[in-house]
Amino acid sequence: QPDGMVVNAVRAEGGVIVFRGNDAAGRTALLLLSGPVTDLPDGKKSLTPEVLRLSYIKDPAKPDIFSLPKSAF
Question: What's the pTM value of the predicted model, to 2 decimals?
């Protein structure tokens, strides 16, 4: 779906979304490049790529990741 696509977007917390796209059924594919970010002398930032992660997400609104309730600790 063109309206749900992102290409080469820099993330505020570091890393680059190389590609993110949604299909008609609402599933998402995400290709993320991450690694340490350093400040360059000219004020720009540089990413040293270390990890390229490909994720297929069936339901991005309700991911199937287990999380502990707030009262667990």
Answer: 0.72
